Structures are given as C-alpha cells and as structure tokens.
C-alpha cells in the first residue's frame, strides 16, 4: 500500500478476503496514521522509513532510507487490534536502533 495506488487498487485493501483467506498488505508509512483497515490482526514492522531529505553532496532532495522514530513505532503498533485482538512484531537489522523496538 502506497500513495500512488489508484482507487480500484485501494478498494482491494479494504475489501474482505473471500472464504476468510488471510490477507497480507505491504504498506509504506502512509498507512501509519491515516487509515484503519478492518480485521488487521498482525502488524510486522521493519522499523524503517523512506523519507525525503536534503542531500548536501548533490544539493538536491532525495528519498533516503533510515530508521523510524519511536512515535512512528507506536503509531504502527496501533494499527493492529483496532477492530479485533491484534499483535505486533518489530524487526530491525541494526542494534543501534534496538532501543526503538519494544512490544
């Protein structure tokens, strides 16, 4: 799920799965605060974010990947269990960001 989905693709995110199948939604941080998807029971959080930042070398703005903030971790955590019991799993590669990851 990302900001460039068309309306039809976005509708699929919110549509119930046929035959009670498990639905997996990959999302950018657009899903962090702006939406609630009925039935989300498990959020797997990479602890990463891609955001526009100033690159002093090229003197331009560029998308950079980095670690998310503690408040974003809490927002992502809140996506699970909004309409049913849920859980969250946090993952991060770098031990320096481990202090951001808690359950």
UniProtKB/TrEMBL annotation:
Residues 1-103 form the Helicase C-terminal domain. GO terms for molecular function: ATP binding; helicase activity; hydrolase activity; RNA binding. Keywords: ATP-binding, Helicase, Hydrolase, Nucleotide-binding. SUPFAM superfamilies: P-loop containing nucleoside triphosphate hydrolases. It holds the Pfam family Helicase_C. InterPro entries: Helicase_C-like, P-loop_NTPase. This is Helicase C-terminal domain-containing protein. It comes from Rotaria magnacalcarata.
